[in-house]
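Q: Hi! Curious about what ComEA protein looks like structurally. Here's the sequence.
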Amino acid sequence: MPVKKYSIILLPAFALLLYAVMPCAAQNQPTNQQTASEQVSAKINTNTADKADLEKLPGIGPTLAERNIQYRQEHGPFKTIDELKNVKGIGDKKFEAIKDLITLE
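A: Let's find out. The predicted structure is below.
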Protein backbone atom coordinates (compact mmCIF):
# COMPACT_ATOMS: atom_id res chain seq x y z
CA MET A 1 0.00 0.00 0.00
CA PRO A 2 2.76 2.59 0.81
CA VAL A 3 4.40 1.97 -2.59
CA LYS A 4 1.22 2.96 -4.40
CA LYS A 5 0.92 6.08 -2.26
CA TYR A 6 4.50 7.15 -3.09
CA SER A 7 4.12 6.38 -6.78
CA ILE A 8 1.09 8.65 -6.99
CA ILE A 9 3.25 11.50 -5.68
CA LEU A 10 6.60 10.66 -7.28
CA LEU A 11 5.45 9.90 -10.82
CA PRO A 12 3.85 13.32 -11.46
CA ALA A 13 6.79 15.02 -9.72
CA PHE A 14 9.25 13.17 -11.98
CA ALA A 15 7.21 14.06 -15.08
CA LEU A 16 7.14 17.71 -14.03
CA LEU A 17 10.91 17.67 -13.51
CA LEU A 18 11.49 16.21 -16.98
CA TYR A 19 9.14 18.77 -18.50
CA ALA A 20 11.17 21.56 -16.88
CA VAL A 21 14.59 20.16 -17.85
CA MET A 22 13.94 19.27 -21.52
CA PRO A 23 13.77 22.85 -22.88
CA CYS A 24 17.03 23.70 -21.12
CA ALA A 25 18.75 20.70 -22.67
CA ALA A 26 17.44 21.61 -26.13
CA GLN A 27 18.79 25.17 -25.87
CA ASN A 28 22.32 23.88 -25.30
CA GLN A 29 22.33 21.81 -28.49
CA PRO A 30 24.21 23.47 -31.35
CA THR A 31 22.29 23.86 -34.57
CA ASN A 32 23.56 22.23 -37.75
CA GLN A 33 24.44 25.67 -39.05
CA GLN A 34 26.60 26.43 -35.99
CA THR A 35 28.29 23.06 -36.12
CA ALA A 36 29.08 23.37 -39.81
CA SER A 37 30.31 26.94 -39.41
CA GLU A 38 32.60 25.88 -36.61
CA GLN A 39 34.02 23.11 -38.82
CA VAL A 40 35.12 25.70 -41.38
CA SER A 41 37.99 27.43 -39.59
CA ALA A 42 39.23 29.26 -42.69
CA LYS A 43 37.34 30.20 -45.81
CA ILE A 44 37.20 27.44 -48.39
CA ASN A 45 38.35 28.25 -51.89
CA THR A 46 35.64 26.80 -54.12
CA ASN A 47 37.96 26.94 -57.13
CA THR A 48 40.56 24.64 -55.59
CA ALA A 49 38.78 22.74 -52.81
CA ASP A 50 38.51 18.99 -53.00
CA LYS A 51 35.35 17.03 -52.25
CA ALA A 52 36.16 16.59 -48.53
CA ASP A 53 36.72 20.33 -48.04
CA LEU A 54 33.52 21.26 -49.85
CA GLU A 55 31.56 18.83 -47.67
CA LYS A 56 32.56 20.87 -44.61
CA LEU A 57 30.24 23.63 -45.81
CA PRO A 58 26.72 23.59 -44.34
CA GLY A 59 24.25 21.81 -46.59
CA ILE A 60 26.93 20.54 -48.97
CA GLY A 61 27.05 16.77 -49.05
CA PRO A 62 28.91 14.39 -51.37
CA THR A 63 26.54 14.97 -54.31
CA LEU A 64 26.72 18.78 -54.25
CA ALA A 65 30.47 18.71 -53.67
CA GLU A 66 30.84 16.51 -56.75
CA ARG A 67 28.57 18.82 -58.79
CA ASN A 68 30.67 21.80 -57.73
CA ILE A 69 33.84 20.09 -58.93
CA GLN A 70 32.17 18.98 -62.16
CA TYR A 71 30.95 22.54 -62.83
CA ARG A 72 34.50 23.84 -62.34
CA GLN A 73 35.89 21.26 -64.75
CA GLU A 74 33.29 22.07 -67.42
CA HIS A 75 33.20 25.89 -67.09
CA GLY A 76 36.55 26.79 -65.57
CA PRO A 77 37.06 28.50 -62.22
CA PHE A 78 34.25 30.49 -60.65
CA LYS A 79 34.63 34.18 -61.46
CA THR A 80 32.12 35.39 -58.85
CA ILE A 81 30.70 33.79 -55.73
CA ASP A 82 27.18 34.27 -57.16
CA GLU A 83 28.13 31.89 -59.98
CA LEU A 84 27.81 29.05 -57.44
CA LYS A 85 24.05 29.35 -57.88
CA ASN A 86 24.56 27.83 -61.35
CA VAL A 87 25.49 24.53 -59.70
CA LYS A 88 22.39 22.32 -59.62
CA GLY A 89 21.15 22.11 -56.03
CA ILE A 90 22.61 25.39 -54.80
CA GLY A 91 19.73 27.83 -54.56
CA ASP A 92 19.36 31.11 -52.73
CA LYS A 93 18.89 29.53 -49.30
CA LYS A 94 21.94 27.26 -49.51
CA PHE A 95 23.98 30.05 -51.07
CA GLU A 96 23.15 32.38 -48.16
CA ALA A 97 24.31 29.70 -45.72
CA ILE A 98 27.73 29.28 -47.35
CA LYS A 99 28.61 32.62 -48.97
CA ASP A 100 30.52 33.93 -45.94
CA LEU A 101 32.48 30.68 -45.63
CA ILE A 102 33.89 30.59 -49.15
CA THR A 103 36.38 32.48 -51.25
CA LEU A 104 37.56 32.36 -54.85
CA GLU A 105 41.19 33.22 -54.12
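A: A fun detail: The beta strands are 44-45, 102-103.
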